[in-house]
Design goal:
- The chain is an alpha+beta fold and 508 residues long.
- A five-stranded mixed beta sheet has the order 1-2-3-4-5.
Length: 508
Amino acid sequence: MAKPQPRQVSAHAWAWVDESGLWGHANSGLITQGSDALLVNTLHDRRETESMLASIGASLPDVRIDRVLLTDSSPHNYWGLGALEGIEPIVSYRAAAKMAGRISPAETAAIIDSAAPGTPLNRYLHKLFGDFDFADGERFTPAGSFSGRSGLQVGTEKIELIEFGSAQAESNTVVWLPEDSVLFTGDLLSPGIHPAVWSGSLTGWHAACAQLIDLRPQIVVPGHGPVTDTAGLADFRDYLYHLIDQIRLRFEKGMPAEEAAVDVPLDQWEHWGHRENLAVTVGAVYRELAAENSTSYSAVMTLAAEIDSGRRRRPRIHPQDSDRFDATPAGEAYAKTASQSLNGLLADRPAPNVIRTIANHPGLLTAIQPLIAHVAGDDLGARERELVILRTAWRSQAQYIWAHHHSAGLFVGLSETEIARVASEDTSEWTPFERALVVAVDELHTDSVLSEGTWKQLAERYGKEQLLELLALTGTYKTLALILNSSFTPFDSWMEDPAILPDAPRRG
């Protein structure tokens, strides 16, 4: 992707546009007349801001930036203030108050480094913020200087500042150049990028966009995404209304927020980037509707990371409704076997999504349900059974199976250390027989046949029935992995903090 360059959009306005659309990679703007200049937002750190200022200086050598306007309290709009030493930023009182309570860049760097290696969250945080240097970043607490509407001049160019409360954030300011018909929106607009509302209100954001449309700007420089116009503003407003309507419907149905974040239909906005932003937006709407703030930053970011990695998606085949399934012969049959399989772990739970997904094909469920119940028994011993299932889940990258059987493994005596070891190429710490089981799963996954050496090791303890049981267990859970992975089956709503599946290296 090409490095951004200052782009002139009108007689007095320039745009600095980052095409990636990532949270940390925001746009900036410049308003000039003669040698006077006002910068609209910094970038996310000092180094990036210094690079932008150097590029502006090369394009506009006679321009002197002596003021900076911050549109909101998002760190990507002001953590580069260190590159503008001696300049007190112009910012609303509400945004300044929010900045005062934010963690520092250095504290953010520590959070990024604390995410467990190999997890979707770790990869996602580095994808968002890996280009920035936060380690020695300063904490900025600028003083507010206005609220509501205010005016500025750059040379003789008149500029209007319009503050909106509780929109995308607790305070969003736009910069309006009426003579040029240019609008700098900051984070109030991100055309082509799914919106993320952290501390504001989606309803307020929609209302703010409606007011901006009344200005009829010819050129709109957004906080993220490409330069647009009034039509782009209107399209974004319409999408916000669509989200308000669809998220509220799911809240009223009692759908968990993490499920709603991937269930909301996107209609004509399907092709927009960074769908994971909806983890943030759905969480904010649910908090607003429930009048409570119960979702942690870590939980929201983990959900966003899972959506970004493809591990959370809108189901291609939705599980049948629980009440409907329970009333069917298959539902009654499941209820009878639930207490007998997986050592009774699911006895007091609703039928899981895997069963209710397959229930969309009643004939298939009738055929496969007895097999699932059988291999979930104790013919191999509970510890060995869970070791085989977990290894199959890891090799198949079956997140749903891994989450369920992480709990089942702990239930039958596997330790957290042992379960972590399942997701590793290093088999040296297993007992010789357990190592043979792990290798057997790998061979079946890669070649669909056990080697002579592995067969002999297993046959030293297992008889014919157990050998066949092992093959059927591995094959059954491989079949389930194919169904679950391809159907995009969601986690069960009753699963608390489902375990994250580590990545598996590609084999064969």
